[in-house]
Specification:
The chain is α+β, with helices and mostly antiparallel strands. It contains 19 helices and 22 strands. It has 4 domains: about 140 residues, Schlafen, AAA domain (Methyltransferase, Cobalt-precorrin-4 Transmethylase, Domain 2, 2-Layer Sandwich); about 70 residues, no CATH class; about 170 residues, 2-Layer Sandwich (Heat Shock Protein 90); about 90 residues, Orthogonal Bundle (Arc Repressor Mutant, subunit A), CATH 1.10.10.10. The protein has a 6-stranded mixed sheet, covered by helices on one side. Strands 1-2-5-4 form a 4-stranded mixed sheet. Strand 18 and strand 19 form a beta hairpin. The radius of gyration is 31 Å and the shape is flat. The termini are far apart.
């Protein structure tokens, strides 16, 4: 079979029959070398790709390269060097074929590698990006966003002409000076020394990083600097008349305060479960997710997100079976989904440094590694990172189905299989809940089983008649609770 050794996906059949896409383009050998420059720039500025020379891009005829001169072929091979700046990394490869006329011929494959920290432009200073099967020229804001992505420009280092020193939180600045051992210096001196003040046209301005970190009223300058928490009932988001959002809260604070506020609020939303400790065979109460895992996910989102993406914010979505943390911007620079555990890189190095000095941030891959380790210690699935659209998503699964099965098994073992089979579904759910938590109120039980207060009261009375549970408090006590009864404790 005829196929590329560098990219085995590119078989002769694939190259001739498949539509062009984000990673693959085909051109006739008669093309002018300069016309390859936009495609080379586009591939290099995206995720790399291959130009197959010798197959016409319209009719897909297997023309080969024998109809053009050796000089022309050399110019095609040298196009990345001669027609682009700076020169991208590439490899050329030749494949022996039989052309459409039945003669021995060859294809030229130009493999363009992804440029990690440089923007590749054409020799006439035009910049392209591969989007789908098109090489799109970038201008204006789109070009600026690419510069951010390639770290040739940092949003955090650009000046904010609207903010003044009086707009910053003096308490945070004082704490920052103290952490640096600079109590005897002014705020302006410290900010200037750390690159948070820049001169423009003879005037000093705060940078975006300074305002993001220390602003008193962050919404005044960056309304997208917020964390939105959404709690859904069930395992999927619904809309319209079936909308299932039970909690919606936005946290809008400067970066040095937003993590604390998010931790304080989200911790109140997380549940506790009882799980079997395989080391000693006993059940113990554990949080829904390891504390470090979800908090580190939020810290990383706050520290490494793309703040230049106006209108976008960090979203934390809580479902029955998982927690999703989504932040604007794909993984920065050379970090990929495959190497995220080993590779260190920060999109916002100044912000990251200050967050580290305040004790929030560890080395990027150290924190990610521990998320994996902590989830494993809780016998939970490994975290899942993905890049939907222009964002990064972390999914932590809580394995609630397995936990409920373990809770039910624990209840069956305590009640006895004969008695358990005499209970209806609601009574079984109530027993599992009480036995796994020690005690519970009627409102808790109604929420858990999804039934009315009257239905739950009826089942509780039936369970008390069977001496499977007992009540603590009078009938009319709003704080009345229920726990295992005499039949199970004797």
């Amino acid at each position: 079979m005829i196929q590329s050794r560098i990219n085995p996906l590119l078989t002769l059949k694939y190259m001739q029959t498949e539509p062009e896409n984000k990673y693959f383009d085909r051109k006739s050998a008669r093309i002018e070398p300069a016309k390859l420059a936009p495609i080379i720039s586009a591939f290099a500025n995206a995720d790399g790709g291959t130009i197959v020379v010798g197959i016409s891009d319209k009719k897909r005829n297997l023309e080969g390269i024998s109809t053009v001169s050796a000089e022309h072929l050399n110019e095609l091979i040298a196009a990345p060097k001669d027609c682009c700046k700076p020169m991208p990394q590439w490899n050329d490869e030749w494949l022996d074929i039989e052309n459409e006329y039945g003669r021995q011929d060859r294809l030229l494959l130009i493999h363009i590698q992804k440029s990690v920290d440089q923007i590749i432009r054409t020799s006439d200073d035009r910049t392209y990006l591969r989007i789908g099967d098109k090489s799109k020229e970038l201008r204006g804001k789109d070009l600026v966003n690419l510069e951010y992505a390639k770290s040739t420009r940092y949003f955090e280092d650009e000046i904010n002409k609207d903010a003044e020193l009086s707009d910053l939180d003096e308490g945070l600045l004082s704490e920052y000076r103290h952490k640096l051992g600079a109590d005897d210096y002014t705020d302006e001196q410290v900010l200037n020394a750390r690159g948070f003040i820049k001169k423009h046209d003879g005037q000093n301005f705060l940078t975006n990083a300074a305002v993001l970190l220390f602003a008193k009223n962050i919404a005044k300058f960056y309304p997208n600097c917020r964390i939105r928490f959404l709690r859904y009932e069930g395992t999927a988001a619904k809309s319209g008349t079936k909308i299932n959002i039970s909690r919606d809260k936005s946290i809008e604070l400067p970066l040095l305060r937003i993590v604390d506020a998010a931790r304080e609020f989200i911790s109140t939303q997380l549940r506790e479960f009882t799980m079997l400790d395989v080391r000693n065979g006993k059940f113990r109460t554990v949080p829904e997710y390891p504390d470090f895992a979800w908090l580190e996910g939020i810290v990383n989102a706050v520290t490494h997100r793309e703040y230049a993406m106006s209108g976008n914010f960090i979203k934390v979505s809580m479902y029955d079976d998982r927690l999703e943390i989504e932040s604007p911007g794909r993984l920065p620079n050379l970090v990929t989904l495959q190497n995220i555990k080993e590779t260190r890189y920060s999109r916002n190095p100044r912000i990251s440094r200050v967050m580290t000095e305040f004790g929030w941030v560890r080395e990027l891959n150290e924190g990610v590694n521990r998320i994996y380790n902590d989830m494993a210690e809780f016998f939970l699935d490994a975290p899942v990172y993905s890049e939907p659209g222009e964002s990064l998503r972390l999914v932590l699964k809580n394995n609630i189905v397995m936990r409920r099965m373990r809770q039910e098994l624990y209840a069956v073992n305590n009640v006895g299989i004969s008695m358990w089979n005499q209970l209806d579904d609601i009574e079984q759910a109530i027993m599992a809940y009480i036995l796994n938590r020690g005690s519970a109120g009627r409102a808790q039980l109604a929420a858990y089983v999804g039934k009315s207060d009257n239905t739950v009261r009826t089942r509780l009375n039936a369970l008390m008649d069977k001496k499977l549970i007992k009540a603590n408090g009078s009938t009319y006590d709003p704080n009345r609770t229920y726990e295992a009864g005499a039949l199970l404790t004797d």
